[in-house]
């Protein structure tokens, strides 16, 4: 099948590359010329394990290509996947400007019957609206239909999550669209859920918001654990043996970040409010997360008289390990808080430095190693549980820091071991 993919971000590029890997003919479209140039030379603009290998293999066998020429790409495609961003607006709603722009570009380009598949996370009803828009715009002798196919990959494991997805969710309104979608995903041999478009769109939000709820619930419990003298890690383990609960997404920490949970909780809450219904559970998840993100710097501000002139180390910048992405990372408001109070902040992240520079410029110092970051510092914050950060030996903090004072937002170390090594150590819910 000839497939065009609009947008080569985490979702579009991984989807395009994996569809090619499974035998389809794929052209990936992006407005960013530099990205397209990079991809054509075999370099992935994002950090995802295993992606470049698939990109190179399928580019050289001719099944995968990249372009900025959307017109040509959409004109020749049987199916067009839309995978552009749907970021948050200031009121919490989803910004659909990028989706609408692609829809206009599709309308001016296509010359034959085409199935348009929205892979981006979009509010319930968006597929129907875009279909209505396109049908008004295109010539009357061609037919377009929209299908919803939300994406569930997580950053850092995007290729694996796509090739071995837990499920393929397909929202369609006709047998024609259903059959095309089934044909596309046949070579993946994965569980498939076929439903209508509104339900497919809702499955995506309901899944993300449920996972965010679990995290906020555990962070709430962690805060109570601290007060009553319980250990949230033991509590989570004890809960996990109940297979109705399971072990995943029970990790307490400095709050959830990333390009999805923060915006998708707010977008569903906003949509619900617009429909006269308050999603109280989701609102609670958002509120707990907002509080949790700043928990450790608030604790630290009670411990020191002032941050003014203090050398503070921040280890880990990305919103989770395995990605170079800093979008909505808890590290950002924490670093801003410290800078506003006059701290000299030195940061270290194994892959996030380039993206951090776009945010902080020369306001922070970028260390090339953990040791360089913590050397002579008066305080250290752990924001991301990268393996090399988790593996720091307590003596390293003790020997390199001016004062061994560690605030660990990801529960990387054992409190007893840290305390025995002479480190003043604070973590979450323990
Ligand atoms: N990142 C994830 O892990 C993830 C997982 C599941 C779903 N999603 C959803 O998928 C969507 C995309 O997310 P992402 O993180 O991949 O986005 P992204 O910001 O990484 O990438 C979007 C890409 O679209 C390009 N673009 C913008 N306008 C365009 C146009 N008119 N034509 C062609 N390309 C255009 C941009 O240049 C960019 O490269 C969002 O709705 C998101 O919520 C993301
Ligand atoms: O027990 C946990 C699990 C995760 N997190 C945090 O939650 C955030 C999101 O983590 P994760 O879900 O692993 O990463 P994403 O790449 O944002 O993936 C989520 O968002 C995607 C975009 O919609 C979905 O496709 C995925 O299924 C969904 O897991 C990160 O800040 C994590 O640190 C916790 O605090 N505790």
Automatic annotation (TrEMBL):
Coiled coil: none annotated. Keywords: NAD, Oxidoreductase. Residues 313-415 form the UDP-glucose/GDP-mannose dehydrogenase C-terminal domain. It catalyses: UDP-alpha-D-glucose + 2 NAD(+) + H2O = UDP-alpha-D-glucuronate + 2 NADH + 3 H(+). The active site is at residue 260. Pathway: Nucleotide-sugar biosynthesis; UDP-alpha-D-glucuronate biosynthesis; UDP-alpha-D-glucuronate from UDP-alpha-D-glucose: step 1/1. It comes from the Bacteria. Substrate binds at residues 204, 249-253, 257, 320. NAD(+) binds at residues 30, 35, 86, 121, 263, 327. One of its GO terms (molecular function) is UDP-glucose 6-dehydrogenase activity. This is UDP-glucose 6-dehydrogenase.
């Amino acid at each position: 099948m000839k497939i065009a993919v609009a947008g080569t971000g985490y979702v579009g590029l991984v989807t395009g590359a994996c569809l090619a890997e499974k035998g389809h003919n794929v052209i990936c479209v992006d407005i960013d010329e530099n990205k397209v140039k990079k991809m054509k030379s075999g370099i992935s603009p994002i950090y995802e394990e295993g992606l470049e290998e698939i990109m190179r293999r399928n580019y050289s066998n001719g099944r995968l290509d990249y372009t900025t020429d959307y017109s040509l790409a959409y004109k020749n495609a049987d199916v067009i996947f839309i995978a552009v961003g749907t970021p948050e607006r200031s009121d919490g709603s989803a910004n659909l400007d990028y989706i609408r722009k692609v829809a206009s570009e599709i309308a001016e380009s296509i010359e034959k019957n085409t199935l348009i598949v929205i892979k981006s996370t979009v509010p319930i009803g968006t597929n129907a609206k875009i279909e209505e828009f396109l049908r008004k715009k295109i010539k009357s002798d061609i037919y377009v239909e929209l299908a919803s196919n939300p994406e569930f990959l997580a950053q850092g494991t995007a290729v694996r999550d796509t090739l071995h997805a837990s499920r393929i969710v397909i929202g369609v309104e006709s047998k024609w669209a259903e059959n095309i979608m089934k044909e596309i995903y046949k070579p993946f041999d994965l569980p498939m859920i076929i439903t209508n478009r509104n339900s497919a769109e809702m499955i995506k939000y309901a899944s993300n918001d449920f996972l965010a709820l679990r995290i906020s619930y555990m962070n709430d419990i962690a805060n109570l654990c601290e007060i009553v003298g319980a250990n949230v890690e033991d509590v989570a383990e004890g809960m996990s043996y109940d297979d109705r609960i399971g072990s995943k997404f029970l990790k307490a920490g400095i709050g959830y970040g990333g390009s999805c949970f923060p915006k998708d909780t707010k977008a569903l809450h906003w949509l619900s409010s617009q429909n006269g219904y308050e999603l109280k559970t989701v609102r609670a998840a958002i509120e707990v997360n907002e509080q949790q993100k700043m928990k450790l710097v608030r604790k630290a501000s009670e411990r020191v008289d002032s941050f003014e002139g203090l050398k503070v180390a921040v280890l880990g910048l990305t919103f989770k390990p395995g990605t170079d992405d800093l979008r909505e990372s808890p590290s950002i408001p924490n670093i801003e808080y410290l800078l506003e109070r006059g701290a000299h902040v030195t940061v270290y992240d194994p892959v996030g430095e380039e993206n951090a520079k776009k945010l902080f410029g020369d306001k922070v110092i970028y260390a090339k190693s953990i040791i360089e970051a913590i050397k002579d510092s008066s305080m250290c914050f752990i924001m991301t549980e990268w393996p090399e950060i988790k593996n720091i030996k307590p003596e390293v903090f003790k020997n390199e820091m001016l004062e061994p004072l560690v605030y660990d937002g990801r529960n990387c170390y054992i409190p007893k071991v840290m305390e025995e090594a002479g480190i003043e150590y604070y973590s979450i819910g323990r």
